[in-house]
């Protein structure tokens, strides 16, 4: 069994597995139909080309849609699992961090501004602009290191405090991290339990699966196309025809100045 097959078959998502089973079945049917077409000596090249295109037009929209849906579900599961790997006050995770009333988002923004002022002696907006303009500046890096220590201290208090104030402080820390490019992972990692680390491992697995799954966006070439005649093979996966395959790149969690530990 190939590495690709091992990763795909171990995806912990029943819905995705069902989608992929249907996609593989359609691919096998298409491949077999094309092989039979190649073996048919009663048809001239032009007739084979037309018939092959009809088969491709019939099967590939379903295959393409299936792979796009599966990939989107796996990517969503990767992000969800990652959020469940981030500890939050009161035994929760950032995946469960929700505003409980209309006033809480305002409290979070206000607290984020206060945190930025305390640890960076500047407004959140000014800190964000500075990082955007000079991400590699030595002074910016030193400020970021100081800010990381400050954010850890704030988050430690939030975890110990709990309640509404702890919730608001934790969400404010995330907002500061997002807007200044500081990795939230580095702030919260020391609070992770075995359950959080299992969720992180699940996120890694889903991301690997998202990387190897076909994108479903690459159009299939007609193996009997007059410009491609002379090819010795036909079928879904021959002659450069990974059907609707097209891998992505491992960038699922990569955001501005944000890096995951498995990169």
Give your account of this protein's structure.
This protein is mainly α and 263 residues long. The chain has 2 domains: 3-85 and 198-228; 89-191, no CATH class. The chain has 9 helices and 2 strands. It has a two-stranded antiparallel ribbon with strand order 1-2. It is elongated and about 80 Å long. The protein starts with a helix and ends in a 51-residue tail after the last helix.
The structural class is mainly alpha
The mean pLDDT is 83
Strand content: under 5%
Instruction: Calculate Rg over CA atoms.
Output: 25 Å
Shape assignment: elongated
Task: Estimate nothing, just give the exact number of structural domains.
Answer: 2
Q: Enumerate the spans where pLDDT stays under 50 for 5 or more consecutive residues.
A: 235-240, 242-259
Number of H/I helices: 9
Largest beta-sheet characterization: 2 strands, antiparallel
The main sheet orders its strands as 1-2
* N- to C-terminal distance: 26 Å
Number of strands: 2
> What is the N-to-C order of secondary-structure elements (H for helix, E for strand)?
HHHEEHHHHHH
């Amino acid at each position: 069994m190939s590495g690709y097959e091992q990763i795909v078959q171990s995806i912990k998502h029943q819905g995705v597995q069902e989608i992929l089973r249907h996609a593989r079945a359609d691919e096998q049917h298409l491949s077999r139909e094309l092989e039979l077409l190649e073996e048919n000596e009663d048809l001239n090249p032009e007739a084979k080309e037309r018939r092959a295109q009809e088969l491709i037009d019939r099967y590939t929209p379903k295959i393409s849609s299936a792979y796009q849906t599966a990939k989107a579900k796996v990517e969503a599961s990767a992000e969800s699992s990652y959020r469940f790997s981030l500890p939050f006050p009161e035994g929760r995770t950032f995946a469960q961090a929700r505003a409980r009333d209309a006033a809480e988002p305002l409290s979070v923004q206000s607290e984020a501004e206060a945190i930025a002022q305390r640890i960076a002696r500047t407004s959140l907006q000014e800190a964000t602009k500075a990082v955007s303009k000079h991400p590699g500046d030595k002074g910016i890096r030193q400020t970021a290191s100081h800010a990381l220590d400050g954010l850890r201290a704030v988050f430690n208090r939030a975890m110990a405090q709990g309640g509404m104030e702890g919730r608001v402080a934790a969400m404010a820390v995330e907002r500061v991290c997002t807007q200044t490019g500081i990795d939230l992972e580095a702030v919260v990692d020391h609070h992770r339990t075995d359950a959080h680390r299992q969720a992180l491992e699940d996120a890694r697995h889903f991301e690997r699966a998202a990387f190897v799954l076909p994108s479903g966006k690459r159009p299939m070439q007609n193996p009997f196309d007059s410009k491609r005649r002379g090819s010795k093979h036909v079928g879904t996966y021959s002659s450069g025809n990974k059907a609707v395959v097209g891998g992505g790149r491992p960038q699922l969690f990569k955001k501005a100045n944000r890096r995951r530990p498995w990169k």
